[in-house]
Amino acid sequence: MRFEKLIASFLAALMTILTAASPILAATALGTFPTFLTATTGSVTSLNAYIVVGKAAMPEDVIAAADIAATLGSSTSYNLGSTSSTSTVTGLTRDGINTCDVNSPGVGNCNLTYVASGLTAFPTGNLTNSHFSGLQDSTVRWQSGDYDYHEQVDVSGVYLDHSLSGSSINGTEKLVVGTNGKIRYEYVFEKEFNFTVQDATKGTIAAPQYSYPYKFKLLGVDFTLVGVGATSVAMLSGSTGTATATKSVDYSGYKFYATIGSTNAMQVDVKDASGNPVETILFTGITSGTAVTKATTTAKTAAGALIDVTLTSFGTLTDGTVIGADMVIGPTGTTTKTYDSSADIDTTGSANDAFPGAARWGILYHVAGTGDDRKIPAGSWIEVKYMPLVQEYYVAGSSISLPNNYAVLKFEGWNTDKFATVSVKAFGSTNAYTATNKSTVAFSDAYGFEISSTPDSIGSSTGNYYEKAYILFSPTGCTGCLTGNNYQVAVGFKDKTTGKILVSDKAPGSGADDTGEYKYDANMTTAFGYNFTLSYAGVGENSFRLSFNLMPSDQYAPATLATNASVVAGVVGNERLIMDFRQVTSGTGSSWGTSAPQFKLGNTSTTGEDCEVTAGSAGLLQCAGKKSTEAVTDDGFLLQSTSDSTSSNAVTWKIPSKTLAVKMSFGNPLGTTSTTGTYKDEVVVTSPVAILDSEVTSVHKAKDLIVVGGPCVNTVAQSLVDSGKLSANYTCAGGVLGTAWSTDVGYIIVIDDGFTTGSQVMFVAGTKAAQTRTAALVLQQYSTLLAGLTGSSYKVTAATTAGITPV
Amino acid sequence: MVNVHQKEGIKIKLTKRKIYLLLGLVAVLAVALIYFYFGPKPVQPLTSIQYYSTVLNFRVDLREADKVPVYPHEQAVSNEIMNQLVENVTIVFKPASETENSLYSLEIYEIIPKLMMGYSRIKTNPHFNAVQVTSYDNLAGTIKNPIIVLEHPVYSNETSVSVGLPGSSYNNHAIYIKGTDLKNFDLATEKFLMAALDIKI
Asked: Are residues A739 and A630 in the same domain?
């Protein structure tokens, strides 16, 4: 009895240990493919596996091999480390470009290199691959030679402007793009190119080289250089490809097939997208290597133009079978062009030099040094320049795309998105309360000005920041005032807790003045001034000043309680946003009576004056009272629409949290750090090697193996069954199939310690070759179909998530 | 004659002839040692090379593969297959017997991952697929979709790599890999890869 208990205890303990140890001993999860097949030594990550191919294979097995090989190829070039697995196309972003008024320092100095103090603007010179990796700096291989080239963009001709004069700018910061090539894309030949290398008789404008053309990309669009003259180049552009009777070259929804041909003739059949015949184009008397262009008679582009088909070279068999016909297809007059040193984009027909799909971008050729037939000297370039019909103006948030959306120059906006919106407006009537007990009315029926800010950015003289501040006048309790030009005035701030306007405890009629935060004067006879600080949320890097300077009015006699307010805002000591208010009514006695104060914007009684608001621009004070759009001031303020100021007697502007500058970017349309390439980064890896099952030795078995094909066709798979590493259900011993093969399925199974401890065997097989291929397709889509699978053995019936089930 | 006497030791009698023989033997041994250490070494098979940051392993000796002829020249192979225009690579094969088809799989496993290394260097990522054909005639690829034609030894009487339509200057954007037996087919495949990836040894 005691012995049985002992055994029971021992078994219980063993179960506990196994349970606890099971995570450690867990089988390799298929969801970790292909990581479990790799080994990392130092910084070197290797696909530590051999691919074992069964000696016998059906054609479908071969096709499946391509799927698996592509997967493994992808895995080997996939970054298995911690760094990004996809290459990043970077762009250029600068947010320190000076806001500019072309009146000073002038158009030439207002380009994107004009730097704001202490910040960084666009670099001088052309934008290249070092600024935007989408611009290529690479090599084109042509006839055994490498031809270095690079792409660059010149934006030195565009500039920023916010001058108050002129309806096109009207004070708003705008990017200005002139009409003739202010943005230029350039494909620069770094090395001399010469068609003579291939054939000294071809490659000129008159005798193009169609058989061995120089193929390259301008702005990512395929171009084919076939001829070079002293100052011009001949190029093909459009939809290019090789057509046969079954393979089409497609353009504008049509399919162009080369259906039958001979040494001097070719029939091109045009079909619509549904395969219905549209027309037939017959080329006769032609020679391969000599371009011939024929236009369609029925098929048209979306714009309604007929379509040119340019046949350049072709090959046929004696029975008329077309081996291939190289052709270029595009709108009439566009497939073959000669470009010289000027770009004409307004002429129609073949003389039009517009870039395909970009009517206002013209192509031209610049020769460096002395050009010649067939030769492009090193340093020459093919240019694509922007030629808008009229000068264009771009506001913040807008952008200019290069053709083919190859790159974007974007006026991103400002260098900060933190702005406080500040308003000054005439205000009243209101009550104000003593600052201490907040319940005693100090001023009643008060009029004056309200200064408001979102967020709370109005600073008092003692450094507290408020949402709202006030300059108030009141006749209440005024002792010794309301005579002559005297007046009673107080500075107030809104208490957010009570919602009340608080002023000095000494008001009203205390007979004593207060010079603190709640400045108060019971009987001003000369002037009253108060300086508010403006700082974004009270923590802005830059602070500004808003000064109220009140003077007794002498223009509205009797001027009892009348005052003029001169309000200026801006950089401390040099405030250049000026808004004057004038009181146009006057009260009498101890109450406003029927003539409550009315403050009107402007320093005259006239309404709707352009100079009711003036702002500093280009170092000058300029009238800004009728602006319907945002205007930038020398202080770095964004003055909001002032066209309504006269009726509302209010002025609103935004203050930045730091020195205002322009943010511009050049690069990828999706942003400066977006990924556009689908390619994988090359990383340090070791490539796998495929071997036949008959070639497998102990050396191979010491590493991970990918065994493709079941035991019937792959002896290594059968040896796994024989050794018990793979279930007997998968056997094919003696040609007798195990139960696993009773239906048409595929399997992907990971076997830990298959032949050697620590090494894995991945078994990929199907009942038939088709199922092996299905399993291969699953591997090819491992990132979506296998992700998250925690088991090691799966049955595959379809290359879908539902088609993969645990065995 | 020289007599060497040693008290209670061994007596060696040397003749001039023996001295000459001894010197000759020493000279031969010296020459052999010098040859062993400084003479030409037997060439080891080269099956692994550093391709930029990648170690590429091959099935056969690259020095031997390098001898496989390429028509019209190696650069043509690279031009055709390793350029940024390529969007899809089709590997074409004509099925042989069930026991011979595995050779195609073997070469496909050899070709695709290594070409993908090359494509990653030029920042492209084309697709790959394999297609069985009943005839090697009338094959036509395109610049964007070049064809790699695997001609099994049972269909081939030569070992070579060639670009374009056999017997014609017309470029059908196809590269033909041929071998007369398993080993030669391997060698031709590796030679193709050497040309495509611009591997010089």
From this structure: no
Instruction: List the helix and strand counts (H, then E) for chain A.
Output: 7, 54
User: How many Å from the N-terminal Cα to the C-terminal Cα in chain A?
Assistant: 42
Query: Are both A233 and A120 inside the same structural domain?
Result: no
CB-based contact A583:A557 (threshold 8 Å): no
Which of B98, B112, B127 is nearest residue A69 as measured by Cβ atoms? B112
Q: What is the ipTM of this complex?
A: 0.73
CB contact under 8 A, B57 and A240: no
Q: Taking each helix axis from N to C terminus, what angle separates B102-121 and A59-77, rounded to the nearest 10 degrees?
A: 30
Q: Smallest Cβ distance to B110: which of A56, A142, A690?
A: A690
Q: Which residue of A has its CA nearest to B138?
A: A323
Q: Is residue A778 assigned to a domain?
A: yes
pLDDT of residue B167: 66
> Residue A132's domain spans which residues?
92-178+391-413
- CB of A76 within 8 Å of a chain B CB? The answer is yes
Do A163 and A249 fall within a single domain?
no
Inter-chain CB proximity A247 and B142 less than 8 Å: yes
pLDDT per residue as tens digits for the range A597-620:
778 887 666 777 778 888 888 778
Closest Cβ–Cβ partner in B54, B83, B172 for A682: B54
Residue A762 has pLDDT above 50, yes or no: yes
Residue A147 lies in a domain: yes
Contacts of A141 in chain B (CB under 8 A): 75, 78-79, 83
Which pLDDT value is given to residue B4?
43
Whether A6 is in a domain gets the answer no
Of A677, A726, A735, A660, the C-alpha closest to A173 is: A660
What residues are paired with A430 via a beta bridge? A446
Q: Answer yes or no: do B128 and A66 touch at CB < 8 A.
A: yes
